[in-house]
Amino acid sequence: MAKYRKNRINDAMTAECAQIVREIKDPRVSGVMITVMNSDVSADLKFAKIYYSVLGECDEKDLAKGLKSAVPFVRSQLAQRLNLRITPELTFVRDEGVKHGAEISKLLREIAKDAADSAEPEDEDDDE
User: Fold this and answer.
1) What angle do CA 78, 82, 86 make, to 5 degrees?
2) 3-118 classified as CATH 3.30.300.20
3) What digits encode the pLDDT tens for the residues 1-54?
């Protein structure tokens, strides 16, 4: 399969899953702000990993259970919306990239603040 086709399928899966996740009525999922970040479909199109990120605090175990129980619904909706011969088996994976990026940004700000504090202006005595 050509790489551009796999990329198009990944993009279509990401867009459709983002819409479908908003339609899930399970209270473990519907009460949480979920963003579908990316999807990765295998070369044979039989398996797909859906990477998601969560805004705010939530019970991660309950959310994972809710998403796992919603997989048949999401798969059926994908089958209706995407024109694929085989609808892939879905696995939801939490994407920690955003959280990790925020932590790195915080550390860099602290380093910059420490560097600014340690670089005090030197007093020069001009005896002219």
Assistant:
1) 80
2) yes
3) 677 888 999 999 999 999 999 999 988 898 889 999 999 999 898 999 999 998
Distance, CA of 9 to CA of 121 (rounded, Å) = 57
The CB-based long-range contact list for 37-43 (8 Å cut-off, 24+ gap) reads 37/95, 37/97, 37/98, 38/10, 38/14, 38/95, 39/10, 39/13, 39/14, 40/10, 41/6, 41/9, 41/10, 41/13, 41/88, 42/88, 43/1, 43/6
> pTM of this prediction?
0.76
What residues does 54 pair with on adjacent strands? 34
- Cβ atoms of 40 and 51 within 8 Å: the answer is yes
Parse the chain into domains and list their residue ranges.
3-118
- 75 C-beta neighbours (distance < 10 Å), count: 16
